[in-house]
Every structure is written in structure tokens, then in C-alpha cells.
Specification:
With 132 residues, the protein is α+β, with helices and mostly antiparallel strands. It is 51% helix and 13% strand. The chain has a three-stranded antiparallel sheet with strand order 3-5-4, with helices on one face. Strands 1-2 form a two-stranded antiparallel sheet. β1 and β2 form a beta hairpin. α1 packs across α2, α1 crosses α5 and α2 crosses α5.
Length: 132
Amino acid sequence: HDTAKTNDTKQKTKDELDLLARLITAEAQGEPYETKVAVGAVVMNRVKSSQFPNTIKEVIYQNIDGYYQFTPVVNGWIDKPAHSDCVQAAKEVIAGKDPTNGALFFYSNRSTNPWLLEKPIAFKSGNMIFAY
């Protein structure tokens, strides 16, 4: 039994939980709890999808053609501490909760991005839209 590996895994899990909770805080601050869960679910759906990287950290920091996938990575909000309700939301989605039924994208209901607006809508919550 390798305790070093177990401790590494626990620390990795703890770090990824914190990172996911910080992303949820930055993306969905002021939104209903259900919206926070949905934001986290999109990250987990990307982790599970063959179209995206395989870890929470790689998904959150993914850069495609010079563009980061999540605005808080660009503006630094990802580095702010997570709110307690966002930590809870992150725990729920890591455990498998997904109110979006598999959405891979989310955006503000004020978005004018034609590429996003063409995607089939999976779920709406608060001021956010979740899409496939």
C-alpha cells in the first residue's frame, strides 16, 4: 500500500476541488445555487468528453488558438478565494450532479457571440444559458 500515492491523490483532488470552486465563484457569483452547480457541471462534462482535456485543471486552463475557455483565467478572478456555496456546488458536480444533462458550454444571456448562440440549448438558469 503506497501512502505517498494516496496522499498525492487526496491533495490533487483537494486542489482540483478548490480550483473548480474558484471558477464557479468567478463565473457565477450572484447567480442562483442551481446555476453555480450547472457551471461546475460543464467543467466536469468537458473532463468526461473526448473533445476536451482529461482533468479539471487542464479543462479550466485550456487555451484553443490563443483563447482561454474561461474568462476568469484571463482576468485573474480565478485566483480569488472560493465562496462556501461554490465549494459545495463543486463537491456535488464532482460526485456526479448535472442539472444541464451534459452541456459543454455556458454563456451569459447577454452574449452576442454567434458561434455560441447557434448551439442547442440544454438548460437555462439565472442569467446563464447552458448549451451542447
